[in-house]
Amino acid sequence: xxxxxxxxxxxxxxxxxxxxxxxxxxxxxxxxxxxxxxxxxxxxxxxxxxxxxxxxxxxxxxxxxxxxxxxxxxxxxxxxxxxxxxxxxxxxxxxxxxxxxxx
Length: 103
Description:
Blueprint: H1 2-26, H2 28-41, H3 57-69, E1 79-80, E2 85-87, E3 90-92, E4 97-98
Antiparallel strand pairs: 1-4, 2-3
């Protein structure tokens, strides 16, 4: 079980990294702007850390957009409505399959 979880997690990580690399390759102007933000805020003496995320709004926006466009898993688990329901004014009939977006 542990090995399968590790393999699944590493596959999702590589999927995200590959989506990130592909997107920035296809949009070099975005990559240049992100690099400029990193150079301006962090400099070239070290790599950014998780603590730097709030200081890098453009890089954070790129990350969020790539996760939106290319999520490592398309949706969460599907659910079936056990009874008629209403959510924010929408009728959800009994037996309706509900697929929640990961965002």
